Amino acid sequence: MPKVSQISSVLRLVVSSRRRPFNGFHFVARSYCTSDPPKPSGPLTSYSKLVEQGRLKHDTYQEKVASAFENLFSRLEHFEKEMEDYHVKLAEWEKKREEERRRLMVEEAEKKEEDGMWASMNKHGQKLLGRWVLGRRQMNVEPGVGKWVSYLNRERKLDSIVGSRPAIPPAPKGLYIYGNVGSGKTMLMDMFYSVTDGIIRHRQRFHFHEAMLKINEQMHKYWKENGAEKSSQYSISSWIMNLPVDEKVKEWLAGEEFYKQQLQMKHILPAVADKFLVDQKSSKKGASILCFDEIQTVDIFAIVALSGIMSRLLTTGTVLVATSNRAPRELNQDGMQKEIFDKFISKLEKHCEIISIGSEVDYRRVAAKNSVENVHYLYPLNSAVLEEFEKMWHQVTDQYGGEITSATLPVMFGRTVEVPESCNGVARFTFEYLCGRPVGAADYIAVAKNYHTIFISEIPAMSMEIRDKARRFITLVDELYNHHCSLVSCAETPIDELFQGTAEGTLFDLESFQFETETEDSRLRRDVLAEGSISAAGSPSSIVSMLSGEEEMFAFARAASRLIEMQTPLYLEGVRFLHPYFHQQK
């Protein structure tokens, strides 16, 4: 156990300490650019400078990956310009195509009116618009032809009139980096992401949990905006309502427009992908980059959703950079939805260079040994440790001032999470409160974004008996680390003895991978699974076998490695610069 005299000094978020060479630190990848540098240099140059400064120890594997990032970086500025030109041409093409589509539809409707089709419809008592507004079954207004054939014929005419869609410029190959925990994958990816600021307009960096929540949120939004439940006054386009034509013509046009919406709803993932990376603050379109940390396949929904989203992004010119513990072909160990997965991996291999970082060293552990003693992960759970934990809580809250109160944080879709004790960016929980209830990544992200320092007490050793809690705790650690929180905790055992029980079987928590939404969640998931020709009813039983013991060992090793890094002085230095709480205060 650490010495009591060392605790209060190390708890300060800005620490003066002798720096020693280390590698693989998530915060280092971001903290190197905290001093308002001029136009960023390339990733390899940045990496080399950190080695020269003694902040990184030279590693041949990391240098190889940095060189690959440098090659990609050198092509981005030109690619951005190419994509800007492409989007200008695409916008012009889409505008012209929509104008021609409306013109063709009006001509078709007028011709049907001339041929007496509307009189025939009235004779048979078909009142299309009225039935459509009431949400009843659609009438087929084109007997013997069918809406699908009519739609395809119109699309073919548009192709001949407007021409084919502008060709997308060939994108530079992205990177898929895989290897052991603590080998520097995330550090190098974040270094690359940092230097692309100002070069690529549309770029996003997601951890797996955050990405899946974003997909769910965007699906929900799209479904609400385009679903069949929308009232007729919003569903009938204004361009139709304002046409100086007979009401019967408007009825037919409205039906054709609604049919088009139905077709789009059957392909929800491409529609979500098209808005996934767009910077809503920018009116100008260009190239896009997706940096995806810890890519994984945890259930059928994740496989189908990620396959649909990623495939669309890669096809439309997005540059993908991803990290993982596994090579692409080894991601789906249990063979779930093999056909869909294999198609996705083939596309990923076509658009990304696959690189193994190769190092067997966990540099987080090396750095921890080269710094001061671990002093804010306290164990075991005896009276002395609990007393010291209380003392540390009062020291930190006194440092930031303010009254200790409870708080309520918004999560998503109207949900909230309660914080029992908090004060100016500092919050306190018990392990049972955070991990003993059916909560998940969305709750942990909300906590991590709002509090720079988190106190967690009474962390037990985790075995098969509390496997759900163990999975939640791993997810919690991931999000605290991703948001660069300072963590103070007291536990039953040392870090390396915290996760037990993999020899007995897998640790599994279905709830950690089910993403909280409104009541429409089941319908959204059903739509996605249907897009992959999967039975939603059958998915849970398939999920149960999703994680092998080896997968759990990866998750445990990552969590332990991150817990160790989160205690080092240099990690704590980065909190004040990198945590969202301090950005909001500026």
From TrEMBL:
Organism per entry: Arabis alpina
Keywords of this entry: ATP-binding, Coiled coil, Nucleotide-binding
Stretches assigned to coiled coil: 76-115
Protein name: AAA+ ATPase domain-containing protein
One Gene Ontology term, aspect cellular component: mitochondrion
Keyword Protein biosynthesis: no
Family: Belongs to the AFG1 ATPase family.
Higher taxonomy: Eukaryota, Viridiplantae, Streptophyta, Embryophyta, Tracheophyta
GO molecular function: ATP binding; ATP hydrolysis activity
